[in-house]
Fold this protein.
Amino acid sequence: MSCSRRDFLKEAISTTAASVLPLSAFVLLSTEEAKAAVANSKVRYAFLIDTNKCVGCGMCVRACKIENDVPYDAPVTRNWVERYIFTKDGKIHIDSPMGGRDGFTDNEMYGEEIDPKDVTKAFFVPKGCNHCDNPPCVQVCPVGATYQTNEGVVLVDRDWCMGCAYCIMACPFGARYFHPVHKVADKCTFCYHRINKGLQPACVQSCAFGARRFANLKDPDDPVTKIITTERVAVLKDLYGTKPHAFYLGLDHDVR
Amino acid sequence: MSEDMIVHGVEWTVKQLFVYPNEYIYWSIQIVMYPYMTGLVAGAFVLSSLYHVFGQKDLKDIAQF
């Protein structure tokens, strides 16, 4: 194979041009510009969950499944309610059959009958995605299909997600699941299609007791934000450092 | 329950051991096999190269598998 100097230079110049030209499609941002693009949002959504008010009816779970096309009879949910029962022998019984979708109507937990006389305290804890400020599920996604919006909502792009389930295992709250129909990771979207129109998320609107509430933390006049900022609230699994944005009133220290 | 309602991991997850309703074992035996196979392949490569590259004659039998 022969190659004159003229041919070599021609090839080299065209190859360099072909590899550099597509780079001009990218816009390079300075650090300040990149920070400003994501930080100047006027909204930061958060949940306020009052465990004292929850009666375990499971209405939020049913509403979420119907609103967001989660398969109704599949054993996965975007949000769920857990039942905690403390008995006199010092044991803690926790269950959430079908995510508490059908309510809690009998005393049986995992085949064990709990006598109401043995119960020292019992309560329900509604749970779901915490829409963390530092979300581990976003960090581990190998294809960048899951991301956090300006409003702090963590979403999944179903077209990009390849279903590796890494994020499902990364979430310490068990908030994600593998969607049986779309075959991708799926999670609570804060009902993004509803809150953008000024509506409330489906679980918040369907809760008859005001146990699940919804706040914009950047708005100081929001009545729910006032509760979060002035009352004693707790978050789940604070030690994980994910900065969860679902705040709980009356959270027991044994809830995990 | 119809065919498309089957959630990956339901068959082999003992739900009594988990609290959260969404928790299933998604990565199962294959995530264990991956580093195991990688180790076997890397070890075989080192052994094989001891004969082919470095001339360790007594490893001829296993170097040519």
